[in-house]
Each structure stands twice: as structure tokens, then as C-alpha cells.
Amino acid sequence: MSASDMIKIYPNPATTKVEVSYTLPENETNATLVMTNALGINVMTKQLDGTNGKMTLSLEDIPSGIYFYSIRCGENVKTGKLIKK
């Protein structure tokens, strides 16, 4: 499984919350999601436990703007951009 198959974050752009849907690579049981703002400042860190699942993340405490996320799972890393309206 490639890192691009590992996670989906939606809706994007988002307003108050996003859904994180993930399936981790074989033999991996946890991953870390880190979200940073455009200045590279960490605004959120969450653990993704289990081989797959869904999680809702609240964005209410984060100002509108462009954010970057990375998910690290073993040697796999996926990065992406999230826009909060």
C-alpha cells in the first residue's frame, strides 16, 4: 500500500471540522498526524490508533488559512494541504 492510500482528510476546504479516514500499511498499528500553519508552527498533533478507522477533528480553535499536514507511519509519510475557511 502506498502512502497516498493511507489517509483521506475531507471536506477540503473545511469550516469547523474534518473527517480523517485512514488505513495503515500492513504490520503498522499507529501513526501520527501533525498539522502546521503556513509559518511551520504546529497547531495540532493526533495519534491514529489501530490499522484503520475514522476520526473527527475540530478546527474551531484554528484561524482561517492554509495548513499543511503530515502523517507518519513507520517509514511511510504522506503530506497534504488543508484549507480552513
Structural notes for this entry:
By secondary structure, the protein is an all-beta fold. It has a single domain, classed as Immunoglobulin-like (Sandwich). Helices cover 0% and strands 61% of the residues. The protein has a four-stranded antiparallel sheet with strand order 4-3-6-7, with no helix packed on it. β1 and β2 form a beta hairpin. The chain is globular and about 35 Å long. The mean pLDDT is 90.
Number of domains: 1
Q: How many β-strand stretches?
A: 7
CATH class descriptor:
Mainly Beta
Strand content: over 45%
CATH domain fold name = Immunoglobulin-like
Termini separation: 32 Å
Low-confidence stretches at least 5 residues in length (pLDDT < 50)?
Answer: none
Name the helix and strand elements from N-terminus to C-terminus, one letter apiece: EEEEEEE
The second-level CATH architecture is Sandwich
Q: Summarize the biggest pleated sheet.
A: 4 strands, antiparallel
Number of alpha- plus pi-helical segments: 0
- CA gyration radius, whole angstroms: 12 Å
Mean pLDDT: 90
Strand order of the largest sheet: 4-3-6-7
Alpha-beta content class: mainly beta
Give the overall shape: globular
